[in-house]
């Protein structure tokens, strides 16, 4: 399929993506699959959710992510249903990240689990308004996404004034939130001596921050450009494979994308 001229997708982004895929030919099939999914929901309108300030206040009061709250989860599930045609119970379990239940329902309904997960989260991504997807310093300090509750799949070291700030990136609804610069977001280890970094081919674009306490790794994007491609988890699948060979754990996502 050609993804160059799809409507609703930014061409500038795609030109860069095309260059990227020319260097990473083996990702083309995965990319096509994921871009088709994004395209499927390209015209979906975001939900009418409370303002940014209200959301900040709400979730910080009890640390329950927005879409996990009793007053908002039905709203997102109602909106997801006609988009995905997934059984309601399955969508509920996906939203609650009850992985065992998701696995069982997919198996008994003969649904492809990876496709089901991806379809559900691609729909959620489009339903969350953009203004809720970037959280600055001290706006949210937990190690899970303030919008959907998933743990981060990646990080972005973004240039800020003289130094760099680290943002964690949700693999579900694609929210970015500012988080402390040093430390493992999975086990809380902050001992620099117990964290190491793996770089690839001498390039700084993407590296792995590895925690020696829990053996989890966090793929970290280190350039200043808007990380359109790199913060898509699937675009660095080859780094996950390399990490797996080194017996490291991927903690933010249940599926290899
Ligand atoms: Zn999220
Ligand atoms: Zn750790």
Annotation, overall tally of beta strands: 8
Would you tell me which CATH topology of the domain at 132-250 applies?
FdhE-like fold
- The helix count comes to 8
Structural class based on helices, strands and sheet pairing: alpha/beta
CATH top level assignment of the domain at 132-250? Alpha Beta
Percent helix among the residues? 25-40%
Give structural notes.
By secondary structure, the chain is an alpha/beta fold. The protein has a domain at 132-250: FdhE-like domain (FdhE-like fold, Alpha-Beta Complex). The chain contains eight helices and eight strands; from the N terminus they run H-H-H-H-H-H-H-E-E-E-E-E-E-E-H-E. The protein has helices spanning 11-23, 28-40, 52-62, 73-84, 88-96, 99-108, 113-127, 237-245; strands spanning 134-135, 152-160, 163-170, 176-179, 195-200, 203-211, 216-221, 249-250. Strands 1, 2, 3, 4, 5, 6, 7 and 8 form an eight-stranded mixed β-sheet that branches. Helix 4 crosses helix 5 (88-96). The model is unreliable at 1-14 (pLDDT under 50).
């Amino acid at each position: 399929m050609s993804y160059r001229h799809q409507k609703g997708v930014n061409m500038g982004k795609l030109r860069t993506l095309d260059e990227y895929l020319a260097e990473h030919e083996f990702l083309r099939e995965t990319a096509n699959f994921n871009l088709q999914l994004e395209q499927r929901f390209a015209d979906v309108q975001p939900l009418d959710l409370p303002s940014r300030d209200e959301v900040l206040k709400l979730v910080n009061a009890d640390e329950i992510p927005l879409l996990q709250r009793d007053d908002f989860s039905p709203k997102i599930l109602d909106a997801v249903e006609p988009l995905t045609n997934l059984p309601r119970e399955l969508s509920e379990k996906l939203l609650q990240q009850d992985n065992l239940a998701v696995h069982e329902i997919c198996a008994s309904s003969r649904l492809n689990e990876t496709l089901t997960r991806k379809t559900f989260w691609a729909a959620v991504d489009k339903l969350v308004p953009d203004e809720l997807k970037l959280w600055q310093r001290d706006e949210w300090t937990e190690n899970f996404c303030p919008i959907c509750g998933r743990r981060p799949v990646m990080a972005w070291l973004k240039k800020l004034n003289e130094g760099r700030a680290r943002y964690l990136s949700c693999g579900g609804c694609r929210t970015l939130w500012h988080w402390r610069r040093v430390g493992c977001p999975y086990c809380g280890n902050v001992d620099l001596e117990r964290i190491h970094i793996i770089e690839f081919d001498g390039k700084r674009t993407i590296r792995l921050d590895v925690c020696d306490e829990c053996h989890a790794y966090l793929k970290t994007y280190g350039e200043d450009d808007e990380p359109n491609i790199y913060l898509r988890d699937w675009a660095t699948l080859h780094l996950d494979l390399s990490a797996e060979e080194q017996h490291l754990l991927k903690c933010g996502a249940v599926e290899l994308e």
